[in-house]
Amino acid sequence: VQLQAFGGGLVQAGGSLRLSCAASGRTISRYNMAWFRRAPGKEREFVARIKWSSDWASLADSAKGRFTISRDNAKNTVFLQMNSLKPEDTAVYYCAGTDSHLWTTASRLYNFWGQGTQVTVSS
Q1: 33 within 8 A of 71, measured Cβ to Cβ
Q2: Over the chain, what HEC string results?
Q3: 56 in the Ramachandran plot: left (φ > 0), alpha (ψ -120 to 50) or beta?
Q4: Is the separation of the CB atoms in 95 and 35 below 8 Å?
Q5: What's the pLDDT tens digit per position in 34-76?
C-alpha cells in the first residue's frame, strides 16, 4: 500500500485545513488508519485514529474539540479536518495504516506510512 498525504499549507491561527491521505496499490477498507505529526525538535506523536469500519475513532487530547478524523473507503482515502489551528499545531503530518487489526496509538505498530505534509500555523 502506498499512502500519499496532502492538503497541508500555511494558515493563520484560528484557521482550518483539511488533510487527505490517498491510498493506492491496495484497498485500505480493512485497515485501521491514523494521523501522526512531528514538530521541529520533537518526537513523532499520535493525533487521531479511526477504525476500518468507521464506528470508532479517537483523538489526542491536544486535538479534541478541534480536529475530526474520517474516512471514505469507497475512495480509499482518510481525512483529518483541523479547525481552530494553533501555532503549536505546526508540524509535518503523516498518515499511517496497519493491517494487523490493532487498535493502537503506538506509531511503531503501523506498517504503512505516507510521506508527510507540512502544516504551518502562524500567530
Answers
A1: yes
A2: CEEEEECCEEEECCCCEEEEEEEECCCCCCCEEEEEEECCCCCCEEEEEECCCCCCEEECCCCCCCEEEEEEHHHCEEEEEECCCCHHHCEEEEEEEECCCCCCCCHHHCCEEECCEEEEEEC
A3: beta
A4: yes
A5: 999 999 999 999 999 999 988 899 999 999 999 999 999 999 9
